[in-house]
Amino acid sequence: MAVQTSTTTTTTTSTSYSTSNTRRAGQTTMQPAATTSQSEASQGQSRHHAHHTDGTIQTLHDAPKQHDLQHGYGEDEEQHARHAAFDHVEHWGLDEKSEKILFYSWATASWCLNIVSGILGSYFNTRHVSFIVTAALFQFCSWAAWWQTATQMAQRASWVRDEANLPDRRRFLYLAVRLNSLMWPTAVISFCIFIVGYVRRHSIHDVPLWLLFLLIFIFNTVGCVMNAYNNITWESDRLEYEEGSTDYSNTLLAILGFPSKPHKSAEYDE
């Protein structure tokens, strides 16, 4: 009996020891799983932090805020840093304030002379000296304003400038908008003058000069459309895509030559 009791006690002790070891083993195997979860979470946080640091975009949800990037989504930090390292280029011509005053003086004079020439040509005829003088002065002032702006744009065009030179790019956009502010009023005025003058023509000899106003209307209309597509919308979209901002928040107003408040892109900035 003593032997059997001892054997039973030994068996019970072994079972208890085995159960205890099994529980400890279970706890031991659960600890690495918890450690792995913590490790993955920390790696995820570090990946998220690195993602915000280098500005790369993996998914729409993980995209960094616009104000964190300090530039647009079309360039990286290295490209953005080049904007502070470009070589400054001196452009010939007047300073910005004087050049602006001169342009609007030419433009205003051309619009007034255009209207006056239409009135004089309709009242007298296109061979009258008053019409010839005012029409010639209108053409001179209009082309002076046009060439003044076009030459300034040519000095800052994409084929001659450094793309890192943001001041020149923004100035080019301003000049393109200003050019449209000259052309579309000239087109509207010339079209109205052509209609009135052609209807009130005195003879067949008046027709060629009235057709000249129709050609002015066509030239300025086509010029407005091409300038809006090739220069205004193109340069404005590039600045917003690369820099995250543009000088004209309303593209339609820019096409018509009117300024609008600078626009900071709010894309992904929730």
Task: Describe the protein in words.
- The chain has eight helices and two strands.
- It has helices at about 1-55, 65-70, 75-80, 95-125, 130-155, 165-200, 205-245, 250-255; strands at about 245, 265.
- Residues about 1-75 and about 265-270 have low confidence and may be disordered.
- Keywords: Membrane, Transmembrane, Transmembrane helix.
What's the SSE blueprint?
Blueprint: H1 2-54, H2 66-69, H3 77-81, H4 96-123, H5 129-154, H6 166-199, H7 207-243, E1 245-246, H8 251-255, E2 263-264
Antiparallel strand pairs: 1-2
Please give a handful of descriptors for the protein shown:
mainly alpha, disordered N terminus, 270 residues
Class of secondary structure makeup: mainly alpha
Could you describe the largest sheet, including whether it forms a barrel? 2 strands, antiparallel
Calculate the mean pLDDT score and round it: 74
Q: Specify the number of helices.
A: 8
Q: Output the radius of gyration.
A: 37 Å
Region (Disordered): 1-57
Transmembrane segments: 101-124, 130-151, 172-197, 209-229
Biased composition (Polar residues): 23-45
Keywords: Membrane, Transmembrane, Transmembrane helix
